[in-house]
Design a protein that fits this description.
Layout: E1 6-10, E2 13-17, H1 26-32, E3 52-58, E4 64-70, E5 83-85, H2 98-105, H3 115-132, H4 138-144, H5 156-164, H6 176-185, E6 192-193, E7 196-197, H7 202-211, E8 216-218, H8 224-229, E9 238-240, E10 250-253, E11 256-260, H9 265-275, H10 280-285, H11 289-294, H12 297-303, H13 310-316, E12 320-325, E13 328-333, E14 338-340, E15 343-344, E16 351-358, E17 364-371, E18 382-391, E19 394-403, E20 410-411, H14 413-419, H15 426-439, H16 450-468
Parallel strand pairs: 1-5, 7-9, 8-9
Antiparallel strand pairs: 1-2, 3-4, 3-5, 6-7, 10-11, 11-16, 12-13, 12-16, 14-15, 17-18, 18-19, 19-20
């Protein structure tokens, strides 16, 4: 394959880059090479949002998609074939973008360090709602800004600005040149740099994995990026999954949902919630929009963190994990994939192809809970998804999956057995809670003590029963709109 430079659309034209290390972040490129210093570095781990930029790409249907992502954790080669928009691409001092003008009018900025990131997230929200002719509620704005932190304004004037931007005449981003450039870039050969490959087909990915033993698969880099930024690790050869068309497939067929390993967290959760509305709160609290737009559900599952929020939901739904190598395909129930702390059943040359999720019928009751110190964009102390298949008021089958309670995400076998064949009642919920002590001996760490984890996990069974009690159901509290 003939080598070619990295190519992406930036500042009104197709930009070519050669010679930079493959782990150069988009943020480093902007500030140190492109002279675009409006984008700031705050945490360098995807938490604060000061580095938020917009990324545009053509989706699997060939439609232009715009999303806000963190520049600090994205490696520059992943921009190949895409477009990058920063705060410099918005208004001018003479003609501010409606979001910028609203931030001025509402005094939404004080020190100003976080402001460009807030503006970019608000512009992403603005574009999304202008496309549908809608105006976001205050809660929707708060959810859209979950990945942006500010220590000065207390958020009220920023939310005011988000609403005020819609009072002005619409001023959409001019994206026709972006789309034209992306269609031109789509004809490029697959990117193959020293230490970085970006195959575009499933067969090519399998061949690359077989030919490069020890290479690290890279998806959204929302976790791997921290290994470089915070731990200063050398990653070795990288094989990027984000350009493989088959891994971006998301389809519903015969009562099952197929989620390709490169489908973004945002798209995967949206599809799951469309089928299982009870997972909505877990979706909104799973990291932040910029992280969900970059990260993938397949990467979250393959990473295998015991505090990852994807595995409990999929495990409770009875999902299979589909694995692929040059030798072919195999599948496992997800609960059999994790062998120990950060250890899984992947064999040499094998990678995650998809998650295959059976969709619950009307006889299933699903409850999902995330317990964390911070409401938005925080790592779980406990994540629980409780699934009950009912025959009348009797439990036919139970799948209780917990994260944060053991070295891996796992099902609570004793608690499941305690409810099997029993009428779903307060007493049954209490029996499940008592049995949970046989399933887990949680650790104590900076997020929660062993006692707290076990106690709160047990209490979730009572909450589940109260929420499902037709006589006096509970509702989840949300910020008034």
């Amino acid at each position: 394959m003939t080598p070619r430079p990295l190519r992406f659309f930036h500042r009104g034209q197709i930009t070519e880059v050669n010679g930079l290390p493959t782990t150069t972040t988009v943020l480093q490129y902007l500030r140190e090479h492109a002279g675009c210093t409006g984008t700031k570095e705050g945490c360098a781990e995807g938490d604060c949002g000061a580095c938020t930029v917009l990324q545009a790409e053509l989706d699997v249907d060939g439609q232009l998609r715009l999303s806000n992502v963190n520049a600090c954790t994205q490696f520059l080669p992943t921009l190949d074939g895409r477009a990058l928009l920063t705060v410099e691409d918005l208004g001018t001092p003479e003609q501010l973008h409606p979001v910028q003008q609203a931030m001025v009018s509402c005094h939404g900025s004080q020190c100003g360090f976080c402001t460009p990131g807030f503006v970019m997230s608000l512009v992403a929200c603005y574009e999304s709602h202008q496309a549908t002719g809608s105006v976001p509620t205050r809660q929707q704005l708060a959810d859209a800004l979950a990945g942006n932190l500010c220590r000065c304004t207390g958020y009220r004037p920023i939310l005011d600005a988000g609403l005020k931007a819609f009072e002005a005449p619409p001023q959409r981003l001019h994206l026709a040149p972006v789309e034209a450039a992306l269609r031109q870039l789509a004809a490029d050969t697959p990117l193959d740099l020293p230490g970085f490959q970006a195959p575009q087909t499933l067969a090519a990915l399998a061949a690359a994995c077989a030919a490069t033993p020890g290479a690290r698969l890279l998806a959204g880099s929302t976790d791997v990026g921290l290994w470089v930024n915070k731990q200063f690790r050398e990653l070795g050869p990288l094989i990027y999954t984000g350009r493989v068309a088959e891994l971006r497939a998301l389809k519903r067929s015969k009562g099952r949902l197929w989620i390709g390993a490169a489908v973004t967290l945002e798209d995967a959760w949206a599809a799951l919630v469309a089928e299982v509305p009870a997972l909505r709160e877990l979706w909104l609290r799973f990291a932040s929009p910029p992280v969900r737009h970059a990260g993938t559900l397949g990467g979250n599952i393959a990473n295998g963190s015991p505090i990852g929020d994807g595995a409990p939901a999929l495990m409770a739904l009875g999902a299979d994990i589909v694995l692929r190598s040059s030798a072919g395909q195999r599948r496992l129930p997800l609960e059999q994939f994790y062998l120990g702390y950060m250890k899984n059943a992947l064999q040499a040359g094998e990678f995650v192809e998809a998650l295959d999720v059976p969709l619950p019928g009307p006889d299933w009751r699903i409850s999902a809970y995330k317990i964390a110190k911070r409401y938005d964009s925080d790592i779980s102390a406990v994540c629980a998804v409780l699934a009950l298949q009912m025959k009348g008021e009797v439990v036919r089958q139970a799948r209780f999956a917990f994260g944060g309670m053991a070295a891996t995400v796992k099902r609570a076998a004793a608690a499941e057995a305690a409810v099997q064949g029993q009428a779903w009642s307060k007493a049954t919920a209490q029996a499940a809670a008592a049995a949970l002590a046989q399933d887990f001996k949680p650790l104590s760490d900076l997020r929660a003590s062993e006692y707290y984890r076990l106690r709160v996990a047990q209490n979730l069974f009572t909450k589940c029963w109260l929420e499902s009690d037709a006589g006096q159901p509970l509702s989840v509290w949300r910020l008034p709109t």
